[in-house]
Specification:
Elements: E1 13-15, E2 19-22, E3 25-29, H1 30-34, H2 40-49, H3 51-76, H4 88-103, E4 107-117, E5 122-132, E6 151-158, H5 167-182, E7 188-195, E8 198-205, H6 206-226
Parallel strand pairs: 3-5, 6-7
Antiparallel strand pairs: 1-2, 2-3, 4-5, 5-6, 7-8
Helix pairs in contact: 2-3, 3-4, 5-6
């Protein structure tokens, strides 16, 4: 993986379920901050099938998501992947990521990159930072391709049933933190969904992500308020 930037991880860097600790200071996890938004679709689904069954399904989907992320990291890093460790869905996702790598000309500069903001006291981990080009067949009909072969983007892998609009709040934070840490303004961000043995892609440019970062700051203010922090 070749790149023209470097992010030095602080020596004092710890991760917990709710936050990161960097040089003794607590940084809120971007995914936790985003979760302050109410998901009506998820609430209706849980109400329909019951909390016990919903928790069971979500636990299994989280495991598949975690396994898929790890398998993608190993595959793009050209490391050995032991397929016996994964179920059929995750194995299918490995074939899909190899297809995606070729069709979208993926050239990773960093995988599972740790990012943080000293200004906003938030932190997170970007799945992929590197080169990418649009492959129109993965987009919804009539969507205009936004990235060429030389585009530098942040990518997030998803195994959810849908690509929810609030995912872009998370991606906007990654783009902003990366820019603050490196001085590099990427071309935008991409969400790649692996589901039902298919690839679906949505894209947003740097300028399109600006309004989502404004939403991120609103979520952060509310999140800190609910945590009892001084605002």
């Amino acid at each position: 993986m070749s790149k023209k930037w470097d992010i030095q991880l602080p020596l004092d860097y710890k991760i917990t379920d709710d936050y990161y600790i960097i040089d003794g200071i607590k940084y809120h996890r971007v995914t936790r901050v985003k979760s302050i938004m109410n998901n009506d679709g998820l609430n209706k689904w849980r109400s329909k099938i019951g909390d016990v069954e919903a928790d069971k399904i979500m636990k299994e989907r989280q495991r598949i998501g975690t396994d898929t992320h790890k398998m993608i990291e190993l595959t793009l890093d050209k490391s050995y992947v032991d397929l016996d460790l994964y179920n059929d869905e995750v194995k299918q996702n490995m074939y899909l990521i190899n297809e995606l790598r070729e069709t979208c000309c993926l050239e990773p500069e960093s995988l599972e990159q740790k990012l943080w903001s000293t200004q906003y006291r938030i932190a997170g981990t970007a799945d992929y930072i590197g080169r990418y080009r649009t492959y129109p067949r993965y987009l919804k009909r009539k969507r205009i391709p936004k990235f060429n072969h030389n585009s530098q983007v942040v990518i997030d892998w998803k195994t959810s049933t849908q690509i929810y609009d609030d995912y872009w709040i998370q991606l906007s934070a990654y783009v902003k933190m990366f820019e603050d840490l490196t001085g590099i303004k990427v071309d935008g961000a991409v969400i790649v969904q692996f589901r039902n043995n298919k690839i679906k892609v949505e894209e947003k440019t740097y300028d399109e992500l600006k309004r989502y970062f404004s939403l991120m700051l609103n979520c952060l203010e509310l999140y800190r308020y609910k945590k009892g922090e001084k605002i």
